[in-house]
User: What shape does this take?
Amino acid sequence: MPDCCHDPAGPLSWKVPLLRFFRRSGPLFPALRAPLSRSHACHPGKQFLSRAVLSRPALSRRALLAWAWGGLLLLGTALPLRADLVGTFSSLRTGYGSRNTDKATIVSGPVAVNMLRFASPGKAWWLSMGGIQFKVTIEDTLALAINSTFSRLQQLTPVYRRAFLIVSEGTKDGVAFYSTLGGAAAHGSQDYLNLISAADAFVISHEVGHIFEQRTRVTDTTVLDRWEVAAQQDNISVSNYGNTVRHEDLAEFAYVYALCVDAGQARLNELQALSPRRFALWKMMVEFNNTPPEVTDFRIINGTPRFVIRTIAGYRYRVLYQAGLAGGSWSPVNQTWADGTGGNITLTDPVLPLPAQRFYRVELQ
Ligand SMILES: [Zn+2]
Assistant: This one.
């Protein structure tokens, strides 16, 4: 699914976050604890005071309004404002990636190509960095030297580099630089990572959120639904831009997570404490993309098929089968799910005697 977005420090949105706020927090007192912006803190304060004052029948309507607004202003200034996650960790932008030692080098190129966006003419290179090889493509109309792209790629936190591989698969353009993206700084999906020349490592960190999320969702179809629940339960905003829609909330979290990974364990722990459910889910998605689930060994021992599966802690696994590949549904060989451990687990097909032919696949959730 394509996805577009702007810089993480994108425009403020007022109406949408307010609606989300009421849906998340409900009226009155829970709302007073809500960690959003000043506009959110004021509105429930008004509700609270209005109800309290309305129990005094002797006051005129005008007096009630005066009380309410007076109280509103008072509350608006007195309520402590809880910073969102981007605000809390934005100081970590200074020095981001400065300890990364891997350098990008050209393996091959340039090769003339028609880029995926509007078949625009461009040049493609293969680069090597930190043991991986990936593609970088630059639109011909953009005056950007290939060497000028290196520093932002080197700056990205290494656990996000897998995104460069994902967007370099097959006929994809890799990290693609365009002279314009219609006003956006970047577009990120598992099919492309499009950037304008001003897009830096912070923008890329955000786009990796979209890339990893979409790649994970191919296998783990409910992960974005679970993300929405996690964000509600964590009860803290990532950023105003993240408040607009759940996949931007995720991408903004990916950006903050990258800052904290780069800054070290203490800041990572701090992020985990502030937003534990998002943290657990994103950590799992990062791991999923760096070590995709894989059947590392399959053999039949004493007539019993045995599967060794590389797993991720937090996911559950089971083996499905069907007799042929001409259609029909897959059935689990065993109704019980096995918990991922972060290492290898062994599953078997217990049905004996085995039929002459059986096809298998591994499912996770
Ligand atoms: Zn985005």
In short: Residues 15-82 form one domain. The chain has three domains: 15-82, 83-290, 294-364. The two ends are 21 Å apart (CA to CA). The first helix runs from residue 15 to 25.
